[in-house]
Amino acid sequence: MKRLLVIALGSAALGAAFVVGSVWAQGPQPMPPSGPMPSGQMPHGQMPHGQMPQGQMQHGAMPYGMHQQHHPAGDGPIQSGQGAFGAMAEVVRTLEADPATDWTKVDMERLRQHLIDMDEVVLRAAVKGTQVPGGLSMNVTGTGRTIQSIRAMVIPHTAELDAMPAWSAKAEPIPDGVRVIVVARDPGDAKTVARIRGLGFAGLLVQGGHHAPHHLAMAKGEMPAAHKH
Fold first, then answer.
1. What are phi and psi of 38, to 5 degrees?
2. Does the predicted model carry a pTM greater than 0.90?
3. Alpha helix ranges (H) inside 98-178
């Protein structure tokens, strides 16, 4: 009888201890000491204010300074628009940076019209190339505004090509456009002949470093009105 009573009392004590432990775990935790903690230590289970556990980040949050690191102040898109817009923006920046710019002579509209001609020729002209001894003959044709643009741009550019040492070039008007013939100055120079034919109209059109200086000169009003290239 005494043994049974001891067992019963022991079981009751264990049950009470289990209940008290569970309540303690679920109840409020003790407050941290009111005094300052040693440097570099935090109360157990707590993180510094605003700090998430390592490897986690609050949705939409980014540490201060990270935006500035990847996107410095004043940084932004580099491309200012389509090609003609970018070319004009570049010229305007150059004009504004030069204290000697004579704004009474500046003519950005003339440059804009030239860039329209370039667009028409590069994107809308039809080109039929035929091999000739020493090089290539190209019929560059179009309709509407494109015809005007071809004649305004291709004929002066052919003169620039002819001034280059490796080849000679000439242009002549044809119905709806211009015929351009470019041949090696030395007909036996197989490499130059192959280069002319490989470049074709598109490659020959971009030869020379005169385009950008001409654009600036047009905008500054320093080129004769007859010179449209």
1. -60, 150
2. no
3. 108-124, 145-162
